[in-house]
Amino acid sequence: MTQAPATVRAHRRRHDREIIALAVPAFGALVAEPLFVMVDSAVVGHLGTPQLAGLGVAAALLMTAVSVFVFLAYATTAAVARRVGAGDLRAAIRQGMDGIWLALFLGTAVVAVTLPAAPWLVDVFGASETAAPHAITYLRISSLGIPAMLIVLAATGVLRGLQDTRTPLYVAVGGFAANAALNVGLVYGAGFGIAGSAWGTVIAQCGMAVAYLVVVVRGARTHGAPLRPDAAGIRASAQAGVPLLVRTLSLRAVLMIATAVAARMGDTDIAAHQIALSLWSLLAFALDAIAIAGQAIIGRYLGAGDSAGAREVCRRMVQWGIVSGFVLGILVILARPLFIPLFTGDQAVHDTLLPALLVIALSQPIAGVVFVLDGVLMGAGDGPYLAWAMLLTLAAFAPVALLVPVFGGGLTALWWAMTLMMAVRLLTLWWRARSGRWIVTGATR
Fold first, then answer.
1. Furthest-apart CA pair in the chain: how many Å?
2. Contact criterion met (CB below 8 Å) for 156 and 294
3. % of the chain exceeding 90 in pLDDT
4. pLDDT at residue 200 in the model
């Protein structure tokens, strides 16, 4: 039976309110994360070029290590949201605690590997003789904050699953402010140099982890959820995270291949590529905020057994993704004269970058749908399909990207290959969404 137009509009307004309420704070929290590195760079940059170069190498290693474990947030969001939808808040928080314990164990293991391996890792990344000592110092100290960083990821997933994206925003803003103050105070006030920057970041990250734990533990006590580690629950969290880990590694491989290809084209192309990639990443934050809303809302609907509601909100979020993509694409085109001079005054880089930015702008509607559907399937706990789909995408992208320099293609051709990658993702995700096989209702998948 077809719904009346008034009823359809009412449902859309309700979905819109939910999406906005979750997506806007999520975007703020996402943007706050890379600001940590920007603050460190701004403070350390005044110490000297070797220190800044060392920070660049160490920060790249740290961000790579942490990004691999982003599944702690994604898998936890889906699992907790399902139990919220099923009306079992005690089980939802219990599941969240399992994710936090897993984060602690994984973080401790990463620290145990990073501390002795720091010199080797820095050498592999090609740090110069003058930058290497600073990179090793920063990496060793900052690695002590990795358990806290992973706890933040898992706890963020818990709160998103509980339909709360405001608390992560507040914690992220507080952490950013604390990091900035600690960096200035320890680097210049205490005279600790680059080590002070690392310690400031570690302290801020630990403070964020404590803030999250206070919120989660309070919820656990309110609903009678146990806090102790549960082997079966931790194992289940790890198993749910493995497919998302494969997906994330495949996506990282795509970005690494693109950067490697650009580097082979020459200094001008790699410089332009890095600027293009930074813009692409910023746009991804905006679209990922809608995906995060999708994870939380879809998981809740499926947990409540409302498959029709899940389909309806999926359609609405796809519409949001398309519109957001068009708006972002237009903004990229209009902002080009303002954006490019912020990064370079080199006319050769400018000329190389300009057509690549047009390709990025044209691909944003595709990216909007991809990010939304990615979030929908994550919220449904459809990790195994996401893993296979991303491996297929990597297999399609790699040969095309590697052939770009062989046939004399420039940076614009490389970004068309990136657009092909997004188009393949769109096809695989759209097919899955249309099939309805992702719709599995109940408190667990």
1. 72
2. no
3. 54
4. 93
CA–CA dist 416, 377 (Å, integer): 26
**pLDDT the model gives residue 65:** 78
Asked if 134 and 55 count as a contact pair (C-beta separation under 8 A), the reply is yes
Upper half-sphere CA count for residue 425 (Cβ side, 13 Å):
29
Place of tokens 């990790």: 383
Please, where are the H alpha helices in 226-306? 231-265, 267-303
Stretch 208-221: mean pLDDT, rounded? 94
pLDDT in tens, 9-51: 776 788 788 888 888 888 777 776 666 766 777 787 778 878 8
Cβ contact 143:62 at 8 Å: yes
Q: What is the share, in percent, of the chain residues with pLDDT greater than 70?
A: 95
Rounded Cα gap, residues 151 and 110, in angstroms: 13
3-state SS, residue 54: helix
Taking the C-alpha atoms of residue 314 and residue 309, their distance in angstroms, rounded to an integer, is 8
What's the CA gap between 119 and 324, in Å, rounded?
Answer: 44
Residue 382: per-residue pLDDT:
94
Contact call for residues 82 and 299 (beta carbons, < 8 A): yes
State residue 1's pLDDT score.
Answer: 45
Mark out the alpha helices in 69-193 (DSSP H runs): 71-85, 89-124, 132-143, 146-161, 166-184
Mean pLDDT along residues 395-412: 91
Q: In the predicted model, what is the mean pLDDT of the chain?
A: 88
Nearest to 285 by CA among 340, 328, 337: 328
Higher pLDDT among residues 7 and 86, named by residue: 86
Joined together, the tokens standing for residue 46 give: 């005044």
CA distance linking residue 390 with residue 358, whole number of Å? 25
- Determine contact, residues 278/260, Cβ cutoff 8 Å: no
Given the structure tokens 């359809």, which residue do they identify?
Answer: 8
Q: How far apart are CA 265 and CA 164, in angstroms?
A: 45
Secondary structure of 317-352 as H, E, C letters: HHHHHHHHHHHHHHHHHHHHHHHHHHHCCCHHHHHH
